[in-house]
Design goal:
By secondary structure, this protein is mainly α. It has one domain. Helix content is 77%, strand content 0%. The chain is built from 10 helices and no strands. It is globular and about 60 Å long.
């Protein structure tokens, strides 16, 4: 691999980490809305609440459970694809762990966000879903390793021949249903603040937001194709200093 290719790959993944931060910020804000979390965090949120109340599961954070579920998604991909599984996709484990860590970071950064009135919860949910949509649109632009939550439906689609959007809907619906069943199992009732109308809203709205943002990410494409170089910074700084001294 040439030096330029290495630099391009590193820059691509630096931007991927930025997009993951944006995505997890959206996830955290949706959780704070208290009217339903995004799909990816429904099961982790239920398990986190159960662990916090000592109901027989580890007292992990939402990010911790998200990481564990992302690892499970990768394992399922390996079982489904077998020899067709590309070893480079194991990098999903790193991305999944980083994603979970960033969720915890953003949950901490948004501790101040406690909407009380219904209208404020609605606005919080809309804001979180919008931020999540922006993050996903940017992440897709990076064209790097697939996220575990997307990789599993892609694997199912490859094996079954079903189109990806249909598989994605079924997978998301299954995750929400599992979260509801776990809520009833642990708490004896549906936990609307975890899987409420906000969850259904996010399932529809986030996809719309991704499509809308994708039409206006030319600026991000420019950033993505930019190639940072230490020498040009030093050269530019030297020219600036020399010009300043001359003045």
């Amino acid at each position: 691999m040439t030096k330029d290719k290495i630099k391009n790959l590193l820059w691509q993944h630096v931007l991927l980490l930025v997009t993951l931060y944006v995505m997890t910020l959206g996830v955290a804000v949706c959780v704070r809305s208290a009217v339903g979390s995004s799909v990816i965090s429904t099961i982790p949120y239920v398990l986190q609440q159960a662990g916090e109340k000592g109901l027989g599961v580890p007292a992990w954070t939402i990010g911790g459970y998200t990481t564990a579920i992302n690892f499970l998604f990768v394992a399922i991909q390996i079982l489904i694809l077998r020899r067709q599984f590309e070893m480079v996709q194991l990098f999903q484990l790193v991305i999944g762990a980083f994603f979970g860590t960033l969720i915890d970071l953003n949950m901490w950064l948004t501790t101040w966000l406690v909407p009380a009135a219904f209208w404020s919860k609605v606005l919080t949910q809309i804001a979180g879903s919008t931020i999540l949509g922006l993050g996903i649109a940017m992440e897709v632009r990076c064209g790097s390793v697939t996220m575990p939550g997307e990789g599993m439906p892609i694997a199912i689609s490859r094996v079954t021949g079903w189109n990806f959007p249909k598989v994605k809907i079924w997978v998301d619906t299954t995750l929400v249903c599992i979260a509801v069943l776990l809520s009833i199992l642990f708490f004896g009732a549906w936990q609307w603040q975890i899987t409420g109308w906000g969850t259904l809203f996010a399932m529809v709205y986030v996809g719309m937001a991704v499509k809308a943002f994708s039409k206006h990410l030319g600026w991000f494409d420019h950033v993505l194709h930019y190639r940072p170089g230490f020498r040009r910074y030093i050269y530019g700084l030297a020219r600036y200093i020399k010009r300043t001294e001359a003045d």
